[in-house]
Structures are given as structure tokens and as C-alpha cells.
Amino acid sequence: METLARATESWHGEQFKYLRGQLAMSLKRDSAHTGLKTPFH
User: Is 15 helix (H, G, I), strand (E, B) or coil?
Assistant: First the structure.
């Protein structure tokens, strides 16, 4: 899995708000081979 972007603050420089701890948002890309079957969700 490849991380494309990671941030702990918004584009406006404001920290993300969460109940506890420091929140970090990530955008990730994953790939799968042709014919891969995943469980229904």
C-alpha cells in the first residue's frame, strides 16, 4: 500500500479536532491483481 498524502492540519493550517490525541488523515492507494475476490462488505 502506498501513502499518497498525509496531514495533521487542514489546508487553512488548522489542527484537525478529535476526542483524544492527534488526528492524522491519510490518502492511500492499493492495487490488486485481476480476478482477486474480496469478502462482501
Answer: strand
Residue 29, pLDDT score = 92
Q: Residue 18: its pLDDT value, please?
A: 77
- DSSP 8-state assignment for residue 9: B
Which letter does DSSP use for residue 18 in this model? -
Give dist(CA 26, CA 3) in Å, integer: 7
Q: Where are the beta strands (DSSP E) in the chain?
A: 2-7, 25-29
Share of the chain above pLDDT 90, in %: 22
Residues 16, 22: Cα–Cα separation, whole Å: 8
